[in-house]
Design goal:
By secondary structure, the protein is α/β, with parallel strands linked by helices. Helices cover 24% and strands 27% of the residues. It has four domains: 182 residues, Sandwich (Jelly Rolls); 78 residues, Immunoglobulin-like; 263 residues, TIM Barrel, CATH 3.20.20.80; 91 residues. The protein binds alpha-D-glucopyranuronic acid.
Length: 686
């Protein structure tokens, strides 16, 4: 055997030794992993992180406080295999590290990563993550010059949908549930000078999350909302609530503080109402107050706001707040004691003219300007809490709001963690917006199928809402088109079809057979027909809200059941909808939270997806709802075409839901004017 040069031999021996060492190390590590987690031997299985929960109380009035705005350019890494998780096989992306020399192996780097804008979803900032639903990492440096007697609160307006924050490499807090603000006092973790802030965000949803993975809107992920380091004195005001008192003769409120002693005073001032009062905090830091005052009540036509301030010790917060009453009386809704009809429209939190999250005040101003131009006095902010800018702008421009948590379609009703996330979202939304005069309705769900577990889950959320705020209506958008309702529609369809020239002769024979079989149940053509909502959730809410898609989806289901063409069913339903009436089995106001139809902007002529057909559906819908005295308002689905992964029809949808009455660029479709004319009609003036 040829004798190898000593160097080569040494090299081979070294390589063999290293290989053996690596294999030993790997096997030890893998053994550790295996020991830790039998079920998942992949090296990426990461141990449960030990972190604190976010502050359960929402830190209010952040716009009035001194703070460091952390919006701007952050470093951004995409981590689909979750290898960055602390403890994971390549774990440790929790802080910025750079190799000490060319020999140190690191397989991630923030300083050389791509840059991303915060706030704003990540999906629409880079093409390669548009459809992405998984883990990403954000990093930036926060320079801090610490002040005496100051607490520092890291505050996020919303991180979609599961966020873990690390400060200087240490796990600080994890918050599950997107769309809502959360904060944590990091005074003891901040260092003087440069702090390394890393946020690990996962926009993957599952069967136990809120919402679940199946949504008809884009799961925009990341640091979608403002991020700030808020400063407060050591003893500070956490939040405060202002409202009209029960008998409407004055004002009352509460102030939640921290760091004060029982007996310390808080001072409330509303100069324009000559309110200047004070109250003592109790041992829980809570102070309640009352004052005589007769404010001009806030109304969409006169959105009157008052400058209010609260001082306590070294802390001072202020805001512009309006006062109104909203209540129900029989089938009516009363705003400031007067009957009102909600001329509304539904939205998603997507700006006009751009994909992604509408994260800024300007975005919301543009959306609400379009709603006002339509003649709307009411906007349904579907299906999740929007940024805090939404209700602030609505207060100013005069729009009533329906705010909602994403308890959407089927939720893991019996999962305790799921309920905890839902309750947290409700609590944060209410605590954030309870001073917003524009908020008229808190909605706890959208289209949830009936079950006892669903009733228990939603009953808990409704109790939570009422426990925090009893000055607004509570509702939920109920699921339409229960089979029982559609059976009635079919009989009327047959009666109409028999005397119409729309169906073919064979189709008329089918209708005749249906009516013969119905015997004396067979309705006369032209006789009215009522859909009656009986969902037991109607007992728990103040306003019975209902999503219905007569003129759009139901025809697709009815036609094959009857063995007639969808064209015939669509044309007949549009013909007899004006004789239909929407009712509920409850002596409460009724509200149509969704109706609509899809149309590709610019497509004209006959048939679905044309603007002409969408407008025909709107004409039939508003006629039907004007014929339904229990219905006190509506928010047709939807203002603008919006991104949705469910909507794949090439050339028509292309991953957009096309039920907007304006398209993604703000171009009005024919249906826009149908709705605008209706909102200008007598129906809108009860
Ligand atoms: C449902 C649902 C919406 C959805 C709409 C549609 O009612 O509430 O989120 O986008 O119908 O089908 O377009």
């Amino acid at each position: 055997m040829r004798c190898l040069a000593p160097y080569t031999e040494r090299y081979i021996i070294t390589r063999l030794l290293l290989a053996g060492l690596f294999a030993l190390c790997f096997s030890v590590k893998a053994a550790e992993k295996t020991a830790e987690s039998e079920e998942d031997s992949t090296p990426f299985n990461t141990p449960e992180l030990v972190v604190a929960d976010a502050d359960p109380l929402v830190l209010g009035f952040v716009d009035a406080r001194s703070k460091q705005n952390l919006n701007g350019t952050w470093n951004f890494l995409v981590d689909p295999m979750g290898v960055g998780a602390p403890g994971g096989f390549f774990g440790g992306w929790a802080s910025t590290r750079t190799p000490v020399d060319e020999w140190q192996l690191l397989e991630y780097s923030y300083p050389t990563a791509r840059q991303i804008r915060v706030p704003g979803d990540f999906n629409t900032q880079f093409e390669d993550v548009f459809f992405y639903r998984d883990r990403v990492w954000y990093q930036r440096v926060v320079d801090v010059v610490r002040k005496a007697d100051t607490r520092y609160h890291l505050w996020l307006g919303g991180a979609n949908f599961d966020a873990t924050i690390f400060l200087n490499g240490n796990p600080i807090v994890r918050h599950q549930g997107g769309y809502v603000p959360f904060s944590i006092d990091v005074t003891d973790q901040l260092i003087e000078g440069a702090n390394d802030l890393v946020v690990w965000v996962n926009n993957r949803l599952g069967t136990d999350t809120v919402p679940t993975e199946r949504t008809d809107w884009w799961p925009y992920g990341g640091l979608a909302r403002d991020v700030m380091l808020v400063e407060t004195p050591s003893a500070y005001i956490v939040n405060a609530k202002f409202e009209l008192d029960e008998d409407g003769k004055g004002l009352e409120g509460s102030v939640q503080t921290r760091g004060f002693n029982a007996g310390d005073r808080v001072n409330i001032s509303i100069p324009e109402l000559s309110v200047k009062t004070s109250a003592q905090v109790n041992e829980d830091g809570l102070a309640t107050w009352q004052a005589n005052a007769k404010p001009t009540l806030w109304h969409p036509d006169n959105p009157k706001l008052y400058e209010v301030s609260v001082t306590a010790g070294q802390d001072r917060i202020q805001d512009s707040i309006g006062f109104k009453t909203i209540e129900t009386q029989g089938h009516q809704v009363l705003l400031n004691g007067q009957p009102i009809r909600f001329t509304g429209i539904s939205t998603h939190e997507e700006p006009i003219g751009r994909d992604g999250v509408a994260y800024s005040e300007q975005d919301m101003r543009a959306i609400f300007a379009e709603a006002k131009a339509l003649g709307a006095n009411f906007v349904r902010l579907a299906h999740y809490p929007y940024s805090r800018h939404a209700a602030k702008v609505a207060d100013e421009v005069g729009l009533l709001l329906w705010e909602e948590v994403p308890i959407y379609w089927n939720i893991a009703w019996e999962n305790e963690e799921t309920l905890a996330i839902a309750r947290d979202q409700v609590a944060r939304l209410v605590q954030r917006d309870w001073n917003r005069a524009s908020v008229a309705v808190w909605s706890v769900a959208n289209e949830t199928p009936y079950s006892q577990a669903r009733m228990t889950f939603l009953g808990q959320l409704i109790d939570d809402v009422r426990g925090m705020d009893d000055t607004r209506l509570v509702s939920a958008a109920l699921l339409g088109a229960m089979n029982r309702e559609l059976q009635g529609v079919i009989l009327h369809l047959a009666a109409e079809g028999l005397v119409s020239d729309i169906p073919s002769e064979p189709e008329k024979a089918i209708f005749k057979a249906i009516l013969d079989k119905a015997g004396d149940q067979a309705p006369e053509a032209g006789s009215g027909f009522a859909i009656v909502i009986e969902d037991p959730l109607g007992e728990l809410v103040d306003m019975v809200s209902y999503n219905e898609y007569f003129g759009w989806y139901y025809s697709r289901g009815i036609a094959p059941q009857l063995g007639v063409s969808e064209k015939t069913v669509r044309q007949l339903i549009l013909k007899f909808m004006p004789q239909m009436e929407m009712r509920s089995a409850f002596d409460k106001p009724m509200f149509i939270s969704e109706f609509g139809a899809g149309a590709k902007s610019g497509k004209r002529g006959e048939g679905v997806w044309t603007e002409d057909y969408q407008a025909a559906v709107y004409r039939a819908q508003v006629a039907m709802l004007a014929n339904s005295p229990q219905v006190q308002g509506m928010t047709p689905w939807i203002l603008k075409d919006f991104r949705a992964m469910l909507r794949t029809l090439p050339g028509i949808q292309d991953y957009r839901n096309r039920k907007g009455i304006i398209d993604e660029n703000g171009r009005h479709k024919l249906a826009y004017d149908v709705l605008k004319d209706f909102y200008n009609s007598d129906w809108a003036k009860p």
